Amino acid sequence: MPRVLALMAHPDDIEITCAGTLLLLKDAGWDVHLATMTAGDLGSSTLSAAAIARVRRKEAAASAALLGAGYTCLGIEDLTIAHTERQKRIVTGLLRAVRPDVLITHPPVDYMADHEQTSYLARDAAFGSTIPNWKALPPVGTRARRAAPPCAALPSLLYADPIDLATPDGTRAAAHVVVDISAVLERKAAMLAAHASQRAWLHEQHGEDEYLHWMRRVGAERARAFGKRSVTHAEGFVPYRGHAFPKDDVLTSALGRRLVKTLP
After folding, report:
1. What is the number of structural domains in the chain?
2. What would the DSSP string read from start to end of 152-191?
3. What is the per-residue pLDDT across 39-95, written as a single tens digit (0 to 9) for each?
4. Is the pTM of this model over 0.85?
5. Full residue range of the structural domain in which residue 55 is found
6. Torsion-angle region of 165 (φ positive above 0: left; ψ -120 to 50: alpha; else: beta)
7. Which domain CATH number covers 243?
8. What whole-number distance in Å separates Cα of residue 155 and Cα of residue 18?
């Protein structure tokens, strides 16, 4: 059974950016695993870091259960994700434990460093996951005392859309592949709704109270790439084509040309 791992910085990042595609892959027979670098321990102005981390771990696990997926939190603190040797070894341990055929993560350029550092860690850990002399650390929060053996092959690497589809200069981020998620939009919304504490936090911290509506608007914006009225919502990706990584069009192979559009 093919397997996909979505690794992002915080609980709810996956649901916002790529949960629709993960749902489609699950329906197509793929095994799906979700992982976050942090438990979102800074996501509250009223609860302690430890208390909100417990809440958000439960929310992330509940969301993953709606998908029929596993969930791992790597235990890094918010705003401390960094491209360090230790964190790279931790992420490598995750990859060796899950052994994905496809890895989805943040784009290298996004609105905050936690996202960007996760992207760099995911790419480098994926590269190191096959190297016997690169030592990994077992994933935090598991019972494993030692890391799994090296992977046999590198996964295909996909960068999901940045938050708000925006680049640092405010222009629209490009996508090379877009996936029609219209049929699974409500299931994606249910997964995002599981993160109730984050919805409350965004409202209090940033004055936003349109958590689910915002997700829908972003999906509708990306759906324009299809040019079809029947495609109401979509998610975008940029495949990483770096040396040694697989170059095949993995999403089209898995989901078919009816659901996947490759852009010039």
Report:
1. 1
2. SSPPEEEEEPPGGGB-TTSPBPP-SEEEE-GGGHHHHHHH
3. 999 877 788 999 999 999 999 999 999 999 999 999 999 999 999 999 999 999 999
4. yes
5. 3-262
6. left
7. 3.40.50.10320
8. 17
